[in-house]
Each structure stands twice: as C-alpha cells, then as structure tokens.
Amino acid sequence: xxxxxxxxxxxxxxxxxxxxxxxxxxxxxxxxxxxxxxxxxxxxxxxxxxxxxxxxxxxxxxxxxxxxxxxxxxxxxxxxxxxxxxxxxxxxxxxxxxxxxxxxxxxxxxxxxxxxxxxxxxxxxxxxxxxxxxxxxxxxxxxxxxxxxxxxxxxxxxxxxxxxxxxxxxxxxxxxxxxxxxxxxx
Length: 186
Fold this sequence. Notes:
By secondary structure, this protein is α+β, with helices and mostly antiparallel strands. The chain has a single domain, classed as Transposase IS200-like (Alpha-Beta Plaits). It has three helices and seven strands. Strands 1, 4, 5, 6 and 7 form a five-stranded antiparallel beta sheet that branches. Strands 2-3 form a two-stranded antiparallel sheet. A hairpin with a 3-residue loop joins strand 5 (75-77) and strand 6 (81-88). Helix 1 runs antiparallel to helix 2 (122-141). The longest helix is centred in the last third of the chain and has 20 residues, at 122-141. The radius of gyration is 17 Å and the shape is globular.
C-alpha cells in the first residue's frame, strides 16, 4: 500500500443530512488527549483559563448561529474532551411543530427560529467552534498553528426522549466518573 494514498474513512452516517433539525450528542477530544482544560477535584470539573474559554465559546456559538440551540445542563468540559448536545432548529418555517424522531431522523426540539436564517450543518458548527477555541488558546500560549483538537469528533443522532435523558445524565455525571472514562489518563 502506498503511504501517500491514505484514505480517511468518514464516521458520519452515510447519506444522512446533518442540517436536519434535531438533537445531536457530540464529543470532541484534545490533540493527543492532552489535559488542557482543567482538573477534576472531588468529582467536580475545575476549569482553567482555557477551559473557561471553551465553555464561553460553546455558548457564544448560539448567538452567532441562529440554527443552533444549546443548554448548560447538556454540556461538559472535561480535562481533555468535551461532551455536548447540539440542537439544530428549524429556521425555515415559523410555527412548524416538529413532533420528534422517526426512522433515521433525530429527536426534534419543539421550537423554531426566524425565517431566513441560513441552514448550516453540524460539521460546520463543530469546525467553527474548534477553530475559534484553537485560535484563542494558541494566542494565549503563543503557539500559532499548534493543534488543540483531534481531527474528528464523535456524534450520535438522538432519536427519542429516553436517549436524550440518558445522555443528559451521562454528561452531568461525567466529572464524577472521570477515573472510569476512556479518556482518563494520569
């Protein structure tokens, strides 16, 4: 095999429209799983300056992107990764009542945004978030061009309320379960 012909396989669901309104659980890890964002003390995450930037940038995203809704009980910054639920809302029709998931469709958030907002994908949200955080951290540590994040991210389409509740509890309890986390290392 020619090492110059390396093909990366996408982990996204083939043929799925990631601009579709619904709930998406995502996890992003730091480059080489480096603990950049703070520490766990007594089962609680203690954010450092970079961790606070990650938190702030996450919620700033919804003021930049009308199609995104985020909630603080659905987001966690960990020492070397983040977990969050991203709600992509219907920006095309006011008053459309999305009733929930079916088949391959995600759980729908029962709200809409003003007409005319551009429809963007989950991956464009992630790319913009990663870029903004990377730029800020690299400015502070004076390391232009250094990676902060792994290339990819994990995503899961949330299809029903039971899944949503289970994932919300996972996010909330993540700091308490840090030593059991696959991303934990000393």
